[in-house]
Amino acid sequence: MQPTPSARVHYEQELHTRTAEAGARRRRHMWGLCIMAVAFLAAIGRAQPVFSPEDLERAMKAVGRYVELTHSAIGAGDFETAKTRVARARNQLAPTIAFWRNNKEADAVKFLREAIAALDELDLSLSNEPIDRAAAGAAAKKVDAACQRCHAVYREQDPTSKKFVVKLRR
Ligand code: HEC
Known about the structure:
By secondary structure, the chain is mainly α. It is built from 6 helices and 2 strands.
């Protein structure tokens, strides 16, 4: 049987509506997946990386070494070497923020930010042309003071083994 013209128009409209509905359903489904993916990534992003006391010790030893080398390079007037040592110290120090955040030690986070800022100041003073050795030396002393502020609160030394350990306040 041939469909009447009006039945045909109706059929085509129906087909069109169904296709549109299926498209809308697919789009809603895609949106749902996107939202789930974003929520999942946000949850991962919020979680701090694992940063154990051993990681902290390893990082601190490296920071201590690079800061010592910075002092000797400044003393020798080798500012280029000093600048690379400062960058290494900063690279080792910055990730330790995970340790303090995981342990909810807000003051330590503040001390850490100050120490990083002091390293950045030192880096700046080593970037000036010509470099002022006295100013670089003074900036290096400020780095030591910033390290010391955190150590005074959060670091302990075992009297017999002389080993340094972290002292949490919570
Ligand atoms: C936010 C706190 C904090 C800041 C800032 C900080 N430290 Fe430390 N540091 C610690 C703690 C806690 C320890 C003890 C942990 C350990 O050594 O196991 C430590 C240990 C050390 C040690 C001894 C490592 C060992 O175990 O033998 C050195 C060296 C050191 N830090 C150097 C530095 C230097 C240099 C800076 C500055 C550029 C600095 N630290 C900044 C908290 C900090």
